[in-house]
Amino acid sequence: MVSISFTVNGRPVRIAADGDTPLLDVLRNHLDLTGTRFGCGLEQCGACMVLIDGVAEKSCGMALSTVAGKRVLTIEGLGTPTRPHPLQQAFIDEQAGQCGYCLSGILISAKALLDRNPAPTRAEIAEALDGNICRCGTHRRILRAVALAAVRMRGQVCP
Fold first, then answer.
1. Whole-angstrom distance, CA of residue 29 vs CA of residue 57
2. Residue 77: count of CB within 10 angstroms of its CB
3. What is the pLDDT of residue 157?
4. 119-151: per-residue pLDDT in tens?
5. Do residues 72 and 78 lie in contact, with contact meaning Cβ atoms separated by under 8 Å?
């Protein structure tokens, strides 16, 4: 058992747990941040995506000890129901989700993309989301939503 300190959604936390405990388990079961999903458990589907110091990472296989002193952003830290992040609003406007299980991971991956590239091409959006699996078949709407959010975040008029 070790004590690990890090920041989650702008709030400092200290967790006493085995250092090998998956970050996803800590987020969901110790911090009650259940928006980050358990999908495959093999770092293949992207449902467990979080930002760690601004980089999209899969949390299901990441040891808690690796985030000591780092900043973690989960879907709960992206926006609120009354003030959604532009990505969240674009996904609503484009009806980009059906079941929604994968969307927290997709939104986190999209945020990482737009943080480093505010004007991505469709191909760049698709490449950034390649590690996220959606079984509902809303891929075209997801791509449109990310492109729409990029335009809005740049303050441009939407087509």
1. 19
2. 20
3. 66
4. 999 999 999 999 999 988 899 999 999 999 999
5. no
